[in-house]
Write a structure and sequence with these properties.
- With 429 residues, the chain is mostly helical.
- It has 2 domains: 127 residues, Vanadium-containing Chloroperoxidase, domain 1 (Up-down Bundle); 229 residues, Vanadium-containing Chloroperoxidase, domain 2.
- 55% of the residues lie in helices and 4% in strands.
- The strands form 2 sheets. It has a two-stranded antiparallel ribbon.
- The chain starts with 5 loop residues before the first strand and ends in a 6-residue tail after the last helix.
Amino acid sequence: MLQTSILKISPGKTVSTAKFFRAALLLISLFLVSISAAKADIIADWNAIGVTVIVTNAQRPPAASYIDLTYMHIAIYDAVNAIDGRYKPFAIKLDNVPSDASKEAAAAAAAYNILKNLFPSQQSFLDDAYARSLATIADGAGKAHGISVGEQVATRFLALRTGDGRNADVPYVAGSGPGVWQPTPPALAPTPLTPWVAKMKPFVMREPSQFRAEGPPDLASKRWAKDFNETKSLGSAASTTRTADQTELARFYTEHGGPQYGRLSRDIAAAQGLSLADSARFFAQVYVTCSDAWIAGWDSKYQFNFWRPVTAIRAADTDGNPATDVDSGWTPVATTPNHPEYPSAHGFLTASYIEAVRRFFGTKRLTFTVTSTVTGTSRTFHNTDDLIDEVIEARIWGGMHYRTSMLDGVEIGKSVAKWVAKHSFKPAN
């Protein structure tokens, strides 16, 4: 037992030995936690760098940006895990890794080498970011060995994904007539975004069509009329049924999902105090899940090619349903994204993202705050399901989607998250 003798610590003050050692242990614990968090920051740092390279500089649209970031985070995970060894490799297994290899250096080298390969025009920006990252790591054999691990993983992973369909030339011809996607205002771009995503080789799923949705409602159905009239009323720029708070929420989620959920991921990792290795696994699992959801969702989008509200409402006299009325001047609250409506991209993105978070931590009871650069506001949640519920409503209030599309998109996202968690990122034993 610890003795409770009195220890002199300053003139006129005393403290028991037991209290002294308890306080010392507490300080040591806090110091170790702070060191762990500082080391884990290199994963978050490269996530932020990746978002800047891919979204800000290269202007990649949401689906493509997630796939690019997934390349980077898989390489980071496999490089760090090759040293840490507590979990199974995702794609690349290295043998004979030096025991002194720096996980920080491996993470930085893996990220840098993936990004400079995907975006060679940003070499100068990446060189500066890499130099700053490596400068935080003490020189020595461990640093050199870590860099070597990261470089090997990045090179082998890029070779493994050669010919996987990223940026492939996939032709698409816009259709016409009731129920068919057509170019939407204001841009009226003749072809939709990134049709290649629908054909890309998934990261964990067996094939893009594995979780294909059931399809949108028949235009003659009551369900179609209900979906149509809800969005027509609540999603109109001139709506008298939508509240001011609902309008703000509609705009809140129009920020590009790459930066918005990237910030959220970094905040969650920091709040949960993840170690460097666990942070690498967290980001990898989240991005792999989201990218496979994008691939699955895009497969459904380009399978059904369903029309957007801005098209359907202006042409309601052609759908053959007496319960839908035309409004030739109807305009949505938010600009309609340039791709088919069904199923909702934000539905499967948000569901896959937050379900991956839930499965990683093993609970829905997480407190987290989402921010938006569009509105300059934030939303705090205490349950992962609540974010999904809010996004469902926001996309209807924004006039971009119908409820069936939102619900079916969410199902895709959840199914993909379950599949990835079941088949990847498992303990080594």
